[in-house]
Amino acid sequence: MHLIVGEDGLARPSWAATDPLLRDYYDREWGMPVRDETGLFERLSLEAFQSGLSWTTILRKRPAFRTAFAGFEPDAVAAFGEEDVARLLGDSGIVRNRRKIEATIGNARATVALREDGGLPALVWSFQPGETPAPQTLADVPTQSDESRALSRALKARGFTHVGPTTMHALMEAVGIVDTHLVGSHRRGSSGVWAADGRLACAGS
């Protein structure tokens, strides 16, 4: 089964049906619109750290990530230097991967620089498609799209790293740019951006 009805009578995909942390994330956060710079930078950073790991690992470490990376405030992270890199590499609460740590600092600097050209939220949301997928099963959920590939190219051109098209598609799912909740899930169409049929809920969303 791709959807599991819980004791509360709500249908969720199998990945969000048992672990309380994942269920809460699915019910409250995943797929809801994020349009502020700090929120998008955090999620972009965490998606990059997640590459090759389980999302559960990242969620469990998110409080430590927020502490280690100054709440993901781009200006603060952009000011990190070699001493901060060493500190982060010694922090067992986060994923201690030098390339990903250095990418996060570089991406913070790129985020600050992008303000002169409209800012990170405007750029990321400019790649919202006209329609969103309507997956019936987990196998129907795409891992990339034309828009995620274009977003990846646009971010790389502005100095971002660890922003491949699969990672960017995961970001787009997480922040509501697309809605890949399975048809029949209690969260399908709940973001206010997308209707359950895969169309934009309202003009200008």
Structure write-up:
Keywords: Metal-binding, Zinc. Pfam families: Adenine_glyco (PF03352). InterPro entries: Adenine_glyco, DNA-3mA_glycosylase, DNA_glycosylase. One of its GO terms (molecular function) is DNA-3-methyladenine glycosylase activity. It is built from nine helices and two strands; from the N terminus they run ββααααααααα. The protein is an all-alpha fold. It has a single domain, classed as Orthogonal Bundle (Endonuclease III, domain 1), CATH 1.10.340. A two-stranded antiparallel ribbon has the order 1-2. Strand 1 and strand 2 form a beta hairpin. Helix 2 runs antiparallel to helix 6 and helix 8 crosses helix 9. The chain is globular and about 50 Å long. The model has no long low-confidence stretch (mean pLDDT 95).
Model regions low in confidence, pLDDT < 50 over at least 5 residues? none
Q: Major sheet, described briefly? A: 2 strands, antiparallel
Question: What is the total number of structural domains?
Answer: 1
- Individual helix count: 9
Main CATH class: Mainly Alpha
Shape by Cα distribution = globular
- Name of the CATH homologous superfamily: Hypothetical protein, domain 2
Q: Secondary-structure element sequence? A: EEHHHHHHHHH
Chain-averaged pLDDT: 95
Rg: 17 Å
Helix content: 40-55%
Distance between the termini: 32 Å
Name the structural class: mainly alpha
Strand order of the largest sheet: 1-2
Fill in the CATH topology.
Endonuclease III, domain 1
User: How many strands appear in the DSSP assignment?
Assistant: 2
CATH-defined architecture: Orthogonal Bundle
